[in-house]
Write a structure and sequence with these properties.
Membrane topology: Multi-pass membrane protein
Pfam families: Mg_trans_NIPA
Family: Belongs to the NIPA family.
Protein name: NIPA like domain containing 2
Structural class: mainly alpha
GO molecular function: magnesium ion transmembrane transporter activity
């Protein structure tokens, strides 16, 4: 009997491929495939849990933004207003925002990026509804049309997102991290990022498209790392501990660093341009960047039918159009300080007004 040879790199690669093949499960063809039917629910229960977490998280963020806005309005009506960061109500909004972002973070551990990222439109439309109901903002015809389109787009996104279930283990992330698709994608992204950064820093070109493209390029790394970290935590709780692998901490560092630099460039965009313009453009750029990242890194559309991809993209288009209609030409109540100021503590001079844009503000570190 021949002696067993020691496992080499080829055996390790084969084992990783075997694990990947077991991680992917596709819905069998049938009338329920690609629609919200009973068969679809049976195959996608874990996806629906992630969708529910994302929707609830975005709704909580909408509530938090309106609470923070309301606290600013209350302080502005006082004869000697206090700094907003001393308001209990404002800190309550911050706490709710943190809870909402935790819901978004957890959602990536249960559903594909291409399903969770576009659901950021729920935050914008939800904020508009809440502001009309509780803050007595004007309800325009374009708001109703935008909300309808956004809800229709969300339905199509959830219905026709990839029917792929993938267990995110450390070995899976390592395999993708050194894959040729991701390496080529990273080289192109670094080149584009450096070119845009050169025009931004050296040439002083601070056009909104350049700033938000820099944000979107960083966002692609954010969603990749967020799904990896969230997925490995989920895998650790349901199967085998993954937090001892170095790739977990590499992804964690990438997640934090990309979020910090996103905040920097997005804050610059909000200082130079109206939020009514920044919000829809940022949502579109972020979502497109996240979808591309999910397709390339996690191969989330692998094996998807053309019609499914087309309807999914049409759902994205409807959600983009809905966000644009909700935010366009909205009356602005200028708040000189943002809902959450990531920079220095603001001036506390008595009488300083705390006015800014209305409810169209979005959290700058969205994992949407």
């Amino acid at each position: 009997m021949a002696a067993l040879a020691p496992a080499g790199p080829r055996d390790a690669a084969s084992a990783a491929l075997d694990e990947l093949s077991l991680n992917f499960t596709y819905g069998a063809p049938g009338p329920g495939n690609g629609s919200l039917s009973g068969a679809w629910y049976g195959r996608n229960q874990i996806h629906l849990f992630g969708v529910l977490l994302a929707i609830l998280g975005n709704l909580v963020i909408s509530i938090s933004l309106n609470i923070q806005k309301y606290s600013h309005l209350q302080l502005a009506q006082q004869e000697h207003p206090r700094p907003y960061f001393k308001s209990v109500l404002w800190w309550g909004g911050v706490l709710l925002m943190a809870m909402g972002e935790m819901g978004n973070f957890a959602a990536y551990g249960f559903a594909p990026i291409t399903l969770i990222a576009p659901l950021g439109c729920v935050s914008v439309t939800g904020s508009a509804i809440i502001s009309v109901t509780f803050l007595k903002d004007n309800l325009r015809a374009s708001d109703l049309l935008g909300m309808t389109l956004a809800f229709a787009g969300t339905y199509l996104l959830v219905s026709f997102a990839p029917n792929i279930t993938q267990a995110i283990s450390a070995r899976t992330v390592q395999y993708y991290f050194v894959g040729w698709q991701f390496l080529i994608y990273m080289i192109l992204e670094i080149l584009i990022f450096c070119i845009l950064l050169y025009f931004y820093k050296r040439k002083g070109v601070k056009h909104m498209v350049i700033l938000l493209t820099l944000v979107a390029l960083l966002a692609s790394l954010t969603v990749i790392s967020v799904k990896a970290v969230s997925g490995m935590i989920t895998f650790s709780m349901t199967d085998k501990m993954q937090l001892t692998y170095p790739i977990f901490y590499i992804m964690f560092v990438i997640m934090i660093a990309s979020c910090v630099f996103q905040v920097k460039f997005l804050n610059q965009a909000t200082k130079l341009y109206n939020m009514t313009t920044v919000v829809p453009v940022n949502h579109i750029f972020f979502t497109i960047s996240a979808i591309i990242a999910g397709i390339i890194f996690y191969q989330e559309f692998l094996g998807a039918a053309f019609l499914t991809v087309f309807i999914y993209l049409f759902g994205c288009f409807l959600s983009f159009l809905g966000v644009f209609l909700v935010t366009r030409n909205r009356e602005k109540e200028h708040l000189q300080q943002s809902y959450i100021d990531f920079g220095n503590i603001p001036d506390t001079t008595p009488g300083r007004k705390a006015w800014r844009e209305t409810n169209v503000g979005q959290n700058t570190t969205r994992f949407q």
